[in-house]
Amino acid sequence: MRQAFFALLFAFCAATASAQDIKAVYHVNTGVESASRILGNVTNHLNADPKAKIVVVTHGAGIDFLLSDAKDAQGREFSGQVSALASRGVEFRACGNTMESRKIDESRLLMEAKVVPSGVAEVARLQAKEGYAYLKP
Length: 137
Hints:
Elements: H1 2-19, E1 23-28, H2 32-48, E2 53-58, H3 79-87, E3 91-95, H4 96-101, E4 113-116, H5 119-130, E5 133-135
Parallel strand pairs: 1-2, 1-5, 2-3, 3-4
């Protein structure tokens, strides 16, 4: 009887764990030269797991692709890619400390981006308090 109970409990826990959606935080602190690759990684992640909850947290040079009119090496603006990912539920967060130190006005950010007080603190909070997996592409 006891073995049957534990077997049932194990099966329930396994089913519950597999039913939970994956949550991932992408930590971005590199400039526009790597942004296309990173956004491609996020797209591929969603294509493989459409239910994944993804937050992209930027600081330092990482916020540059979230600025209006930012372009990749081929001259394409990032706004379309960011908008498409946001429509799939991806959240974009920019570091307020970086914006203040670089004197970047919030109005220069794409409308999909939200300012958080500290990018690194946001990454830590998502990991520690909300159970996000950390990804550094």
